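User: Um, any thoughts?
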Amino acid sequence: MKSRDQEYRELFMAEALEYYDAMSRHLSELERNPQDTEALNELFRLMHNLKANARAMGFVDMGEVAHKMETLFGQIRGQERTFTGSLVPLTFGAVDTLGNMIRAVGAGQESADAHTLLDNLERLIQGEEPIQAATEQTTEEADADAGRKLELSDLVYIPVKKLDNLLNLVGELVIDRDRILTLAAEIGNAALQTTAQHLFRISDDLQYSVMDVRLVGAGVLLNKFPRVVRDVAAAENKQVELTLAGQDVQIDRNVLQLITDALLHIVRNGVSHGLEDAATRVAAGKPPVGQLRISALTERDDVLIQVQDDGRGINTEAVRQKAIRKGVVTADAAALLDEEGVWMLLFEAGFSMAEKITDISGRGVGLDVVKLAIDSLGGRLRVNSELGKGTTFTLVLPTSIAVKGALLVELDARAYAVPLLHTDTVLALHADEIFAVGGLLMTRVQEENVPLVPLRQLLYVEGDEPLPRATRADLPPDDTLHQVLVVSYNNRRLGLIVDRFLRQQSIVVKPLSKPLDTIDLFGGVTLLGSGQLCLVLDVPALTRLFLTKRP
């Protein structure tokens, strides 16, 4: 497997060689027509980009040559000089030198000494003539020009839409593969089973290879936030120091795209609501400059994006009372919420702790977009806060949204898939482990009371009808084991009573077609190896339905 440094070097090489080809082309255009503004602007842009990329990779001489060339083309753009005389051959020679430097990077070799070229470029910048006349060429000469080879990059750029289409095709292949494996086992033909197993290995490798191509560093998104934080801090008259970490953590590009707005809201919220102004911080015994940290890290098969501040923390009681006043939750229900439950109220639609409307907050559009984005990915959200010390928001995201791990359960002889990201544990309960409180069935899981509900009731509930009140008399005889899948969403656990557990497997989720896509209890559909269609349960939607319909 390639190291990340090697991958970055190859990406740099691919882009730098494209720059080199474009520079040569635009230089020729500029030589033919020194008034060609478009060619001049492109040369300036290409030199600027190569300078930045080379310096970021630690290629000092390459960055310096590009920097001085950028300065020269800037002078031409500013009409301080014209593209004539010794400037012409020297810039062509400088571009050739850049090409040699780029090829040396690809070959892992030291590039040729560039001091003479840099001195000559500096003399031109200062309005002096080069030390050596660049117009004089020896017989041996870059002869070498006549025998120059044309080169193509080993890397290609692929539009994301093409990768999406390829992944969809691989998903179809995986579905058919599972059907072939099932048929081979039913027929019992040894040769067919061997071929089916070979197909399984190849398709598995293909699937993960395509998924790997779609992975990008989290820095693609994280590196956009210094400017965001700077602008919000300026608008709020606050001093903020931003730290980024984990830019190399790999995540599916589509996942990153879907959380962009969510992360933006959390970061803006951290600066606007989380961090205090300098005077307030000093009065509280803190440094005047607030600290904000955005980091990416891995946890098992998930990627975590964390936004951490050392601000005022969440005032739990203030949130509880504001939610009651806003009608987000009743006073009785709010009183039963623990600290984490209250914090989750911040993500309800239209809820805001802002006392006044500004360009940053208070317009009724805020953290609810975070929950919607996380739900759409099948992810989770964690909040941890300490009053006066700060708050940490953690987005738990799948590495890829193309293939999901799922637990298959059976209800009324039909299979349903539950994403593993939301599964907490599975239980087989005797009747004496279940008790009824206030019309709800409950059980104890890890020192916590967890409500139980038959999955059948949630799927078949109609209109505005509440769930029926439950008593122990509704339970089957004591010798019956009740199969319970405990799911988790927004730090709330819910036990779903099912007929039986089938198995755990990876699934390819397809969206439901119209008009079924309006049923929010299902997050999509997949095809099992038997050819049976299997609905994918939307755990967040089921949890919200239970909270709405509970007796």
In short: The radius of gyration is 31 Å. The domain at 217-398 is CATH 3.30.565.10 (Heat Shock Protein 90). Residues 308 and 392 are 4 Å apart (CA to CA).
